[in-house]
Structure formats: C-alpha cells, structure tokens
C-alpha cells in the first residue's frame, strides 16, 4: 500500500527543514510513508510529519542525558511509532518557531545516528558547542 504524500512539493516550511537537514555531511532525503525523512546515509535522524494531526512537526533523536528534561518541556511530545529509544517530536508551524533551536535539535539527532566518519566531518565543520551557523 502506497501512502499519500503529506505535503505539496515545494512547501516552504518543509523546505526550511530540508535545508537544515541536507546541510549535514552525507545527509540524504528519502520519502517514506508519504513524508520526507532525512538520513545519515541509512539511519533516519529526522522524520517530518509525526502524524496526520500534526503534519508540521519533526521527529528527532535526543541525547540520552537530555531526554528526561526535554520530555518535561511542553513543546515536545511523543510521536506514534517512535516512543522508545529517545525519540521526541516538536511542531514547527508556530509563528514563533525558533529555527535556531530546531537546527540544534536536528544536528543533535544527526550526531546520535551518524557513523564515526560522518561525526568527524560534522565536527570539522561545526565543533560541538560552537553553535549552529547556517
């Protein structure tokens, strides 16, 4: 069964997420379940559209140490099928979406699934703690 596409091609909000994700080393976009997913070659680090009810959201992997505190933040929620293994979701269609913060969440998620070579490439481009600079 083929899933219907959740977004129209060229959706400007999805495009902003796409640019953040594809700026990471060896990141690729793969459509799955009718939604864009972004992968560090194979493992997913961002899934756009947590559900039909919350299409403008990303599902991302947290750092294990930060996960409990993020769960307490009302901006985050558990997405269907991703509740385990430190995955959370956040909406990005709010007028006050903090795109810098979203970029940091995306980069953190990438670092959780990237292989050593990819992590090194990212570290060379943007050392941890230097802040996101896109």
TrEMBL record:
Pfam families: YjbR (PF04237). InterPro entries: YjbR-like_sf, YjbR/MT2646/Rv2570-like. This is Phosphoribosylglycinamide formyltransferase.
């Amino acid at each position: 069964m083929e899933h219907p596409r959740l977004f129209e091609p060229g959706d400007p909000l999805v495009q902003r997420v796409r640019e953040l994700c594809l700026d990471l080393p060896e990141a690729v976009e793969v459509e799955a379940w009718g939604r864009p997913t972004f992968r560090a070659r194979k493992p997913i680090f961002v899934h756009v559209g947590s559900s039909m009810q919350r299409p403008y959201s990303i599902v991302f992997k947290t750092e294990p140490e930060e996960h409990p505190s993020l769960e307490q933040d009302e901006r985050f929620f558990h997405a269907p099928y991703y509740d385990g293994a430190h995955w959370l979701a956040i909406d990005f269609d709010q007028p006050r979406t903090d795109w810098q913060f979203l970029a940091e969440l995306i980069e953190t998620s990438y670092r959780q699934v990237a292989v050593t070579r990819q992590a090194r490439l990212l570290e060379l481009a943007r050392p941890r703690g230097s802040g996101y600079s896109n």
